[in-house]
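Training component of the fellowship. As part of building independent skills, the fellow (R.M.) carried out the full modelling exercise for a liganded target. The chosen ligand was oxaloacetate ion. The inputs are recorded below so that the supervisory panel can assess the work.
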Amino acid sequence: MGFLRGITALSNLRSRLGQQTTQLGSLRWLQSQSASDLDLRSQLKDQIPEQQERLKKIKSEYGKVQLGNITVDMVLGGMRGITGLLWEPSLVDPEEGIRLRGLTLPECQKLLPAASPGGEPLAEGLLWLLVTGKVPSKEQAVALSKELQSRSAVPDHVYKGIDSLPVTAHPMTQFVTGVMALQVESEFQKAYEQGMPKSKLWEPAYEDCMNLIARVPAVAAYVYRRLYKDGRAIPADKSLDHAANFSHMLGFDDPKMLESVRLFLLVHSDHEGGNVSGHASHVVASALADPYRAYAAAMNGLAGPLHGLATQEALLWVKSIAKEFGEDVTTEKLKEVVWKTLNSGKVVPGFGHGVLRKTDPRFTCQRKFALKHIPDDPIFQLVLKLQEVVPPILTSLGKVKNPWPNVDILSGVPLNHFGLSEDRYYTVLFGVSRSLGVSAQLIWDRALGLPIERPKSVTLDWLEDYCKKSA
Ligand SMILES: CC(=O)SCCNC(=O)CCNC(=O)[C@H](O)C(C)(C)COP(=O)(O)OP(=O)(O)OC[C@H]1O[C@@H](n2cnc3c(N)ncnc32)[C@H](O)[C@@H]1OP(=O)(O)O
Ligand SMILES: O=C([O-])CC(=O)C(=O)O
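Fellow's submitted model of the complex:
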């Protein structure tokens, strides 16, 4: 609870010690940090000219280097395999999985500052990493925490906008409505209208992104409390870090739940640029639509069942199995259930991937967490059985390129264990997490002056003609 208070005490101690701290080894770094060291915007501003130069050099020296051939399969196959986007915060290797600014998830867990020793990383430190590519000190993460808090007030019209929807509206519809209502305060839109030159647009993009990240937890929590807790909203607790405060506003203060939310925000934060939500945000922002509009587009994509909604679908599916067949369901029965799902024309949620060709490290990371904190949870136990049962069945179909579990099959399990059991809400949690990665790139989109995205499309007639001529 006293995360910020603890750090403030440390800083006070530092000033009381004055010059002596230079003798104190481990405290030395604290003193060397100036105000601009602690300010994300200043750090970013320092980096931008260098990265702009880098991009310019790559373009002029290597602009004609080929990155592969485009085949008809790729055009008809959702552009799979086409390298066509620049995305700085993360990169996915098909075998190894995600790296956030070069760090694997276990490396992030080890290196990023945590609320308490050995705990899950603070979302603020993660955001710092995603934006700058540098691992922040705890002081930097705390400074960013304070910055986000200072930006977190949500205007009343946002809540009124959400309230105008029927409670039957899907939580993602309510959430996106809230996000669009936040857009009314876009600094980016104002700056553009006032004629700000392109070279400076990263500044209002930064403002919008930081305000957005700061505000979406309250909007998301409002939707949750409206739908499931009689609308009794819980005010923010300013002594808490970003993730813990989100959990608090949802109504969960158990320290293990706070850790679960911190982990959730880490593993769902980003997955390079070609996934539906990332790509949607990038293309919308490329038309110089403001970050709220771009993020809302991302959230509409995330709400698709083959993408982020799989979090909801997976938890619903696993729970329905537990309900119908009990938690001790046999392997044979589980196989039957998987086949029944497939034969009804549905996909098996939480398995497979568009890029990954091995078990998703985000699954592995959450599995480790569950083994530590909730080893006997019956839903977790059921997922472990599905991890064995599903891949051979999917493989036997002969068409599934990746039969292994993805992030979504376990995403909801720890949170469900600690009381957040409303499956339909899960994609909103995913959305709050993805505000970190999407925003980090939106800032760089404008800092690097990336152009409007406009790939070429063709018709079936064109394809046939072209292929016949080249045969
Ligand atoms: C955060 C995330 O977005 S992670 C992904 C979350 N989504 C899910 O968990 C939903 C279940 N999984 C899927 O639907 C798919 O694996 C996707 C959408 C993730 C990837 O799709 P693709 O890249 O097209 O996968 P792939 O090339 O292996 O698909 C080939 C075929 O196998 C099928 N397939 C792939 N995964 C599955 C699955 N889990 N269950 C059933 N069939 C599957 C595809 O539907 C496709 O069938 P079709 O040719 O009859 O249309
Ligand atoms: O990479 C993808 O296509 C989907 C995914 O796992 C994500 O966006 O988290």
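The panel noted the following from the submitted structure. Confidence is low (pLDDT under 50) at residues 7-31. The pocket of oxaloacetate ion (ligand 2) is lined by residues 271, 275, 354-355 (CB under 6 Å).
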